[in-house]
Prior knowledge:
Elements: H1 2-34, E1 69-73, E2 96-101, E3 111-116, H2 133-156, H3 162-176, H4 179-187, H5 191-197, H6 205-218, H7 229-239, H8 253-267, H9 282-292, H10 300-308, H11 311-326, H12 332-353, H13 357-365, H14 370-388, H15 412-432, H16 436-443, H17 448-457, H18 465-484, H19 487-494, E4 497-499, E5 519-521, H20 522-549, E6 560-565, E7 568-573, H21 577-623, H22 627-636, H23 643-659, H24 665-678
Antiparallel strand pairs: 1-2, 2-3, 4-5, 6-7
GO biological process, one term: cell division
Subcellular location: Chromosome; Cytoplasm; Nucleus
Protein name: Wings apart-like protein homolog
Amino acid sequence: DLEFSEDASGVLEGNKKSTNKQGDKSKENTRKIFSGPKRSPTKAVYNARHWNQPESEALPAPPALKTPSVPVRLSSKEAIHKDDGVFKAPAPPPKVIKTVTIPTQPYQEIVTALKCRKEDKELYTVVQHVKHFNDVVEFGENQEFTDDIEYLLSGLKSNQPLNTRCLSVISLATKCAMPSFRMHLRAHGMVAMVFKTLDDSQHHQNLSLCTAALMYILSRDRLNMDLDRASLDLMIRLLELEQDASSAKLLNEKDMNKIKEKIRRLCETVHNKHLDLENITTGHLAMETLLSLTSKRAGDWFKEELRLLGGLDHIVDKVKECVDHLSSDENEEKLVASLWGAERCLRVLESVTVHNPENQSYLIAYKDSQLIVSSAKALQHCEELIQRYNRAEDSICLPDNKPLPHQNVTNHVGKAVEDCMRAIIGVLLNLTNDNEWGSTKTGEQDGLIGTAMNCVLQVPKFLPQEQRFDIRVLGLGLLINLVEYSARNRHCLVNMETSCSFDSLCTGEGDESLKITGQIDAVQALVQLFLECERAAQLAESQTDELIKEAPTAQHDKSGEWQETSGEIQWVSTEKPDSTEEKVKKEEDDEELDLNKALQHAGKHMEDCIVASYTALLLGCLCQESPINVTTVREYLPEGDFSIMTEMLKKFLSFMNLTCAVGTTGQKSISRVIEYLEHC
């Protein structure tokens, strides 16, 4: 045993020596490859760049410790290989220490934690509840708005000098020219506060002009109107300052011109289609603001307050002023301006009188029915102007082969006349709807019933094709309102003579008995119109049914043939691919063409049915409480039978029941007329 141990120890000593020799050789090789040139032993180099040292993965594993908590260095770095005689700084201590806690119980888990010594922590501040970028931007915008409005409101107060107040109003109006600022102003409910501060502006001419300009700028939005009663009252008071400047504190002309120039430049930056920039006055700006604030953008309170504060008075007076200019203006530009002014005022009056009996009665009584008188004159002027400035695209058959005056289809004067006519009839429809007083007052106007008949029979020939149906239905509706509750108007219409409908003169096909020329009774012309529309509706309905019922017939497929090859039957195409694509495209075009034809027939059928129904309703209203009128209408009907009229009215009533609220006054009137005609 001892001998064996000695031999073994000798072998081990020999292996150790050889290993030491090989290690010395590897160190020498390492120095030769990686070591730099020899350096002076008197110099010391401090190298704190620990990131240039090898990674921690290359370090040998630390010896296992028996303690349950063992710190492990993650960011420790090896020092760079030392050169002979050169001193290196030690590696910096690790900043982050990974601590692993070994569980002592079987149900516990290993817990790993990262710790950093206090002296290694960098100085920093923890900010909690950091806002998002969008929130910061929104907060900044709101703060900027708040600062601006507080600054400007402080300059609007009555204790400030007049020049300061004017400058603040102009500055606020300039900011309100931006839609975003107007949105902020409305969102925070600041509009009423601004005008409450300027409540005394009507006492100063320059301040009232600036306030009217601010109102005009704020009215450029198509949002819900946010004016309260005090703001509307201020607007009405500013309207009265157009000619009344005696109580105002006048500025010298130079300062006033400066303010007007600022307002003119400001108004040029917004939508100002109807604003006369050469006529910048308080009344003009206030009127334009009022006309842009229709009741469609407000509640029922606006309709009532506009009447109580006197706003309707100013609008009616404006209508009269524009109508008076229609007979005197020869210049087309001035004529268009008058037509547009009347049309805009009438649109506001139309909207405030819908389902509002109080406003209807007030407007009928105002200055002895001034609105009705002005509307009747304006309608007669428009009837004359539409013949001079017609926009009809196609030729119309006229008696004695007289050609229609040729005009440009895009004539702006003709379009203004058409819009004004529709607005006039719309106001008159509201004033006469279920209102005997309004119907009587309107029918008393000289030539109004005859003008309404011409709107049904003659005026459509001067309009574009797509506008004829509208003006005809409006005229029929006005005549129905006039004769429904007024015996005087019924008598006037029955005894009137007129020309037959313009389109009945062009019937080249069909029943020759429908062709009537010259002056005829109004009842005969209406019966003629009803029969033509009823037959046209039947024809369109039959054509549409044929288009719908036509089924594609099964045709022999000639695109190929069946052939038997090697005991199998195969379909062999005989057409070229190009011809197949052309055939598919042609079929699609034919289907689209058929669909368009069906839609056109359906639209024409609907228009003819509505015109025939309105005409039948008008004739039924004429027959009420008048056996003489029943006999007159019966003479012109085929075989004197009212069933053709009642059938059309029943279809129209069914259509209204589907599309309108059940129980309206229109449906009750139709039902009453149907019941009366069935007993005739």
